């Protein structure tokens, strides 16, 4: 149930020398197959992981599935399945989608793993020994979908949950409680001393508001739920799904051949550098989880980042509205690079973002097929025609005293800073600006005209091609966290091997990589332009009486300029 993916960049430095960077996605709830919200979080996490690997850090990227609780037992029953079989199917669906989206996770943890259960029980016992767990009756309004008791003041009309828009139910139980209120002052002090603990800043304001309004102890067991980890010394109750699932971030760090042991798992790299989550589960990660760790005497994660929600055509997505966005379908129709690039470029990370198919197609065509792909194709075409696909001089020599080199170096540094700050959209924009600068340089210098002039003009034109191709090499590295396969195809066109691409680091963005005498590959488009429905219908109309059978957007090969 643990899955480890070997990442070659992690081998660049020994584990002793490299700084460890642990980042996590939520452990996704398996009541239903993966949706676009889950995919968005994971795509963003993967881009961050890939960037950190480029910096030479030892990355441990944790994801997985949360498989206990009342909602999962109900979903399994509705499907005519057992909870265990249901979890197996949905957990595998996540891993299949992550493979299709080129997610390079290092650890995949399932909360039904026996090792996880052992660590949860040990953690529970440690908190119990601290005196922070007690037994009491509780009566309140419970949202089954949130797996959480709700305060009446946060509910909508008819006691509806503001997230799921369904009425909460009255429930009374004899449960075990965690003394959250005991840690109110410590939580406040943590946020005061470490204001970057919760990001973006406006999420920090939300968390501070929750804490200042007064924290209440919360139930950490359920008497009415059989599908869960039994409470130590009380098999009539199971551990609350969130108290269980949050510990997956630690249990995932255990090696496969290790006995379940909390301290051994913690010593494998904890604390996490970054928890990446949706804003709807911010309270669990920024309030409950830190208090639990304080109680157990463990370090807090360094940062919790809560991103926004996705909408479609300006409307909230939902099955009842018939406007859900299916990630498997998107990847099948457009490919992983297009999906990854659009959501990371077009959604300001941290804020809500909107998807429309027309905008999706326009953005990826304009940026990947045209700005970057077409520039590479044009340049290689001219190099083949005039220089036998061979670079005439080192890129460092070609760019001596050239303003484009200075511009690109500044943009690369800008992209690095944006990646570091989790400003993924701005990082994409900085890299795209390299492509824009390259296109402007090509149009301004018109090497195709200077080749015809011969002599010194022809020599200058050959140098211009080297300069533009060096810019493309830098783009291939700087954009690789976002669109890895697309960037590999660029690198391949520049005559490099897959092994070379897999071992490249961020230092490779320094100007001067291409050398005189290097032979480029034969030019071919690196990104297939997507034709939208309107274009296909217009094309069909001009070719009457032949009718187009195309109903879905299809990828078309980009024409050479």
TrEMBL record:
Coiled coil: none annotated. Keywords: Aminoacyl-tRNA synthetase, ATP-binding, Ligase, Nucleotide-binding, Protein biosynthesis. It comes from the Eukaryota. One of its GO terms (biological process) is methionyl-tRNA aminoacylation. CDD domains: Anticodon_Ia_Met, MetRS_core. Residues 538-561 are annotated as: Disordered. The keyword ATP-binding applies. Its EC number is 6.1.1.10. Residues 397-534 form the Methionyl-tRNA synthetase anticodon-binding domain. It holds the Pfam family Anticodon_3. GO terms for cellular component: chloroplast stroma; mitochondrion. It is an enzyme of class 6 (ligase). One of its GO terms (molecular function) is ATP binding. It catalyses: tRNA(Met) + L-methionine + ATP = L-methionyl-tRNA(Met) + AMP + diphosphate. InterPro entries: Anticodon_Met, Met-tRNA_synth, Met-tRNA_synth_2, Methionyl/Leucyl_tRNA_Synth, MetRS_core, Rossmann-like_a/b/a_fold, tRNAsynth_Ia_anticodon-bd. Residues 153-380 form the Methionyl/Leucyl tRNA synthetase domain. HAMAP family: Met_tRNA_synth_type2. Belongs to the class-I aminoacyl-tRNA synthetase family. This is methionine--tRNA ligase.
């Amino acid at each position: 149930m643990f899955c480890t993916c070997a990442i070659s960049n992690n081998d660049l430095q020994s584990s002793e020398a490299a700084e460890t960077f642990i980042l996590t996605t939520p452990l996704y709830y398996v009541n239903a197959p993966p949706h676009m919200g889950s995919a968005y979080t994971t795509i963003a996490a993967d881009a961050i992981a890939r960037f950190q690997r480029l910096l030479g850090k030892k990355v441990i990227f944790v994801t997985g599935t949360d498989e206990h609780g009342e909602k999962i037992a109900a979903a399994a029953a509705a499907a005519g399945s057992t909870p265990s079989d249901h979890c197996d199917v949905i957990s595998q669906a996540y891993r299949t989608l992550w493979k299709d989206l080129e997610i390079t996770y290092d650890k995949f943890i399932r909360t039904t793993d026996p090792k996880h259960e052992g660590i949860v029980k040990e953690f529970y016992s440690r908190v119990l020994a601290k005196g922070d767990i007690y037994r009491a009756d509780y009566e309140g309004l419970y949202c089954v979908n949130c797996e959480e008791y709700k305060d009446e003041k946060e509910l909508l009309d008819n006691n509806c949950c503001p997230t799921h828009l369904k009425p909460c139910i009255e429930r009374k139980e004899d449960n075990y409680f965690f003394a959250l209120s005991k840690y109110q002052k410590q939580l406040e002090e943590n946020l005061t001393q470490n204001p970057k603990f919760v990001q973006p800043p406006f999420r920090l304001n939300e968390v501070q508001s929750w804490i200042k309004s007064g924290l209440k102890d919360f139930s950490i067991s359920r008497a009415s739920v059989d599908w869960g980890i039994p409470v130590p010394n009380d098999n009539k109750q199971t551990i609350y799904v969130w108290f269980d699932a949050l510990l997956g971030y630690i249990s995932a760090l255990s090696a496969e051949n290790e006995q379940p042991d909390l301290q051994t798992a913690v010593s494998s790299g904890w604390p996490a550098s970054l928890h990446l989550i949706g804003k709807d589960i911010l309270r669990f990660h920024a309030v409950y989880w830190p208090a639990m760790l304080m109680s157990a005497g463990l370090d807090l994660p360094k940062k919790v980042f809560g991103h926004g929600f996705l909408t479609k055509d300006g409307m909230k997505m939902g099955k009842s509205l018939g406007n859900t966005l299916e990630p498997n379908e998107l990847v099948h129709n457009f490919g992983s690079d297009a999906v990854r690039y659009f959501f990371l470029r077009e959604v300001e990370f941290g804020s809500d973002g909107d998807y429309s198919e027309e905008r999706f197609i326009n953005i990826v065509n304009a940026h990947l097929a045209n700005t970057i792909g077409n520039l590479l194709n044009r340049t290689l075409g001219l190099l083949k025609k005039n220089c036998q696909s061979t670079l005439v001089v080192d890129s460092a020599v070609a760019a001596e005293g050239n303003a484009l080199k200075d511009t690109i170096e500044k943009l690369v540094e800008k992209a690095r800073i944006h990646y570091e700050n989790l400003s993924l959209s701005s990082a994409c924009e900085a890299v795209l600006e390299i492509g824009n600068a390259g296109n402007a340089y090509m149009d301004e210098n018109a090497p195709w005209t200077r080749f015809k002039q011969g002599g010194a003009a022809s020599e200058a034109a050959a140098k211009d091609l080297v300069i533009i191709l060096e810019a493309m090499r830098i783009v291939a590295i700087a954009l690789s966290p976002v669109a890895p396969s697309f960037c590999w195809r660029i690198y391949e066109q520049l005559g490099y091997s897959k092994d070379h691409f897999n071992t490249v680091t961020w230092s490779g963005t320094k100007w001067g990589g291409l050398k005189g005498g290097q032979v480029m590959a034969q030019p071919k488009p690196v990104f297939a332009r997507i034709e939208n429905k309107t274009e296909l219908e217009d094309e069909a109309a001009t070719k009457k009486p032949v009718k187009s059978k195309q109903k879905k957007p299809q990828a078309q090969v980009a024409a050479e300029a």
